Amino acid sequence: MEIKVKPSRPNVQLLSANNPQPQHRMKTLNCYVLLFCWKAICCNSCQLTNITIAVEREECEFCITVNATWCSGYCFTRDPVYKYPPVSSVQQTCTFKEVVYETVKIPGCGDHPESFYSYPVATECHCETCDTDSTDCTVRGLGPSYCSFSQNGSNQ
């Protein structure tokens, strides 16, 4: 009696014209990965962001916080390793393209004109060279939540 052993073959899905689904999934995955990399590397993420800022008037000795929108994110920029004096390197920053001003009344001032405070609210953002005439271009300022007075009107 002769026994014949049939070699077993694992159940493997072959990539062929008869079975295009694995290839299709791989192409779709590659497209998503390329799109993600392109968005992360080539595109700016400069956009409107909700922030809370402190608003105060010295005359009123009172501080309140208000919600506003401002620009936040990063812009594509280059910083050369070797600095040559004749060639200046201009850095781009995420800044406002357009602003509107909103006004709030600060408590504790009565009905005097100084009881009203107007503050800028960004409505559109873009990447541009920092304009020192209208923007604080320092690495770190006081921050939007800094207040000289507490919300109950006493010095901090």
TrEMBL record:
Gene Ontology process terms (BP): follicle-stimulating hormone signaling pathway
Domain Glycoprotein hormone subunit beta: 44-147
Record key words, sorted: Disulfide bond, Glycoprotein, Hormone, Secreted
Compartment(s) where it occurs, according to its Swiss-Prot or TrEMBL record: Secreted
Any one cellular-component term (Gene Ontology): cytoplasm
Pfam families: Cys_knot (PF00007)
GO molecular function terms attached to this record: follicle-stimulating hormone activity
InterPro entries from the UniProt entry: Cystine-knot_cytokine, Glyco_hormone_CN, Gonadotropin_bsu, Gonadotropin_bsu_CS
SUPFAM superfamilies membership: Cystine-knot cytokines
Protein family membership: Belongs to the glycoprotein hormones subunit beta family.
The protein's role, per its UniProt record: Together with the alpha chain CGA constitutes follitropin, the follicle-stimulating hormone, and provides its biological specificity to the hormone heterodimer. Binds FSHR, a G protein-coupled receptor, on target cells to activate downstream signaling pathways. Follitropin is involved in follicle development and spermatogenesis in reproductive organs.
Subunit structure: Heterodimer. The active follitropin is a heterodimer composed of an alpha chain/CGA shared with other hormones and a unique beta chain/FSHB shown here.
Protein known as: Follitropin subunit beta
Record organism: Patagioenas fasciata monilis
Lineage: Eukaryota, Metazoa, Chordata, Craniata, Vertebrata
